[in-house]
Structures are given as structure tokens and as C-alpha cells.
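hiii, so i know i said id send this last week but things got crazy w the move. better late than never?? heres the sequnce for the chain we talked about at the cafe, plus the structure i predicted for it. fair warning i was half asleep when i ran it
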Amino acid sequence: MIFAALVFLTVASIALFIAATFKGAEEHGAGQIFGGISLAMYGITALLAATAWNDTSVYYGVIKSGGLSSLGTIIMCGIGALTVGGVMANPEKYKAGVGEFFGFIAFVVLGGAIMVSTNHLLVLLLGIELSSYATYILVGYYRDDRFSNEAASKYFLLGAVASGFLIFGMSLVYATVAFSNGSLSYADIGATLQGVAPQTVGIPALIYPGLAMLLVGFGFKLALAPFHSWTPDAYQGAPTMVAAILSVGPKAAVVIALSTLLTTAFPIPELSSAWKNAIAVLAILSMTIGNLMALQQTNLKRLLGFSSIAQLGYVVIGVAVGSLEGTSAVILYVTGYAITNIGAFMLIATLREAGVGENIEDIAGLVKRNPFAAVMLAGFFMGLAGVPVLAGFLGKLLLFKSAVDVGMVALAVIAALNVVPSYFYYFRVIISAIFSEPKDLRPFELNATATTTLAIAMGGVVFLGLFPTPLLNVINEAVKVLPLFAAR
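okay and structure toks below
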């Protein structure tokens, strides 16, 4: 059924583009219609994915059904639905080609669903590129805006470099395993390497540069330091809801796909120690550089851009750990982070529509102008900081614990120390909104769609913070079938 979910999402996404060519597709109210269709599309896709939970079929040798594929697809549909809700709250900002806008969001979701459902390197590349090309176009959606065009150009050029690394790395991996079966299936790569490792010839030398190039390519896609330079400019220049899905959509899928790839194709100790150490270094650099740069920002979108670099540094701790607990913590944390970060960007977009700027000084005294907006802002930014009872806390705690459990104590300590500067810049925004005096005392109202969507997102942040156990149990069931963990 996971294959049916992907086929349905593909057909529905293409139908959105076709519908966008009809007369009246750009008239007033069309955005709400396209948004409603998109929400229904994600709901049906998530339902189809859920029915495939216990299915273990492999379709055409490249799409693998199962709990992890279903869970990843449902997460991607949830991210798409929240993003669409944010766009529907401010439909006039996206009126130029509104049908295409929702169509490209659907392609981001589809690309992510392919990434988390495949067991083949070439199909993984297809999912990454489908998602990437959709975001390249969305970042440059404001065609007459110089900053949007500049952001799209930088993002596209560096994205092309990342794709080059991925393709070159895959070719080296293929050269390594071609002598055996020539397959690019994760399981076949893993079986081939396990077969040659005990022999006196050892692991083929090409596998190391191939794996290194794969990690560089994934580092670009995840905006891990030192491959992060495109991130703040892309976030600032892109439409706000594009920055929202860019910050979590492709990255949530990529990090799940990376965990699956590494634990399935490269589980042998001779290789796993190498990629674990490399990812640990990337995690440390990302947490440290992201947080230090975020401290200097006054623009909220750039602050969240550098914040996302740090957040992904926390996320990949679980990948570096390479344990069942670490991988489960990755998915739990990235789920909570996705809801929280989309909510934060959604609020920025809604405030911008109400005439409030994107700088920290612009939201000074927000509580006196609109108490609901101030409460939402405080909730989302405290969630990103990892305040207890909100979504980010337990995920971060489990990531740190998983590192300690496998002996990566230094990594856990550095991560914990990096929480301190993150609290400073997140709470600086909250303090400005609640305790500073406003420059403009005029109150403003948020439209009903914005209020509802923000409340739903905040409800998700609080629910995951208070009741994470059901989701964590589901994640554990999905993850434990991965070869590296199933063998234990």
C-alpha cells in the first residue's frame, strides 16, 4: 500500500499543476480551494501509508513497505499540511501562480516520501532531487524581488554541488560492489561488504572516498556546518512559508533516509566507526557555529536559519550514535522540531501580513498589541529552546542520553553546553515581545485561518511535550526492523 500512497500523491500533485492552468485559477478565493484540495490529498496519502504499516512488500525492488516507510510518509504529509495551512492564512501573498505554489509543496512532500520509502541509492537520489528542485523554484517564487532571486541562485548552485557529491559518491560505492552483484540496494551493498570484510583483502579502498562524498552531499542537504553557507540567505529571501517547509520538510526526510542508508548499507564495524565519527564532528560544528551565529542576528528569519543549523546538529547526534535509541530519538526530535519551527515561521508570516516587521525590534511589546500572537511566539520559541513540557525537551534529552549510553560522553557534554547560547537568543525574542515597550500601540487582529492553524500547531507542540510515549513506542516499532538493530 505504500506504493499506492506514492502513486496517489504523484497523480494528485500533477493534477494540481493541471488545475492551475484553468481559467480563474488565480482569482480571489482560489488559494483556499487549492489549499483545501491539498489538505485532502495529504490526508488520503497519510491514510494509505498507515494501512501499509504491517506490509513488508518490496515493489520493483526499490520501494520498501513497512513501519518506517509509513511513519516517514505520514510525517511528510503532516509537514505539508501544516505548511498549506500557513499559506491559506495569507493566500494573497501567494496569488501569483497559487496552484503551482501548492503543487510544488506537494512535490517536496512526494520527494520526501520517496526518500523514506526507498531501499535503493538511485531512487534515493530521485527523491532528493525532486524535493530539491521544487524548493529551488519556491525560494525564487517572488520573481520581481532581488533578495528572492539572489537566495534562489545561491541555493541552486550549492544544491547542484551537493548533488554532484552524492552522484560521485554513489558511483564509487557502485564500483565497489559491482564485482559481486552490481546492485545499489542498501541491503545488497551491506551484504557484499559483510562478505568481503572478513577476508584478508579487507574492505575495497574505494568505499571510503565513496562514503565520504555521500556524507558531504548529505551535509549540504541538511545544512550541516561547514556546508551551511546557503541557509540564512535562502531563508531570508524566500517567502516565509517556503522558508518554513525548507527548514524541516526535505531535512526530516533526508535525516531518516540517511539513518536507514547507513545502518543498512554500512553496518559493519570497520565502516560504522568511520561514519559515526565523521557525523559526530559535523554535529559539533553545526551546533557550535549555528548557535554562535544566531546570537548575532536581529532578523527573525535569519535567526531561525542559523538556529536550524544548530538544531540539525542536535538531530544528527542520534545518527552518529547509530543505536536503536539514538535513531528513535532522531525521529521523535525531528517530528517535534518540524511542528514547532513551521509554527514559528507561520507566526512570522501572519505578523508580516498584519504589518509587523521581521526584526526583533519590530515585535517589541507584541503582547500589548495582540496577546494571542505573543503567547504563540513565546510557545514556539520556548519549544525550539527545549523548555520542559514542550516538544523539543524530551527529544533533545533522549539524544543526549543515547550518546552517553554508547560512550560518546564528550559529544553529549558539548551538545549540552550548546543549549546555553540557544536559550539566550530564543528568550531574547520572547523578552522583546512580552516585556519591551512597543513602538506602535495600535492593536491588530489575526484572521480566523491563521488563528486556527497556529492553535493546531501549538497544540501539537504541547501534546508531544506532555504525552510523547505513544509516538515514541510507534517509532521504536518502526526502527527496530533496521538490519543493524534487528541483528542484536
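btw The radius of gyration is 22 Å. thought thatd interest u
miss u guys!!
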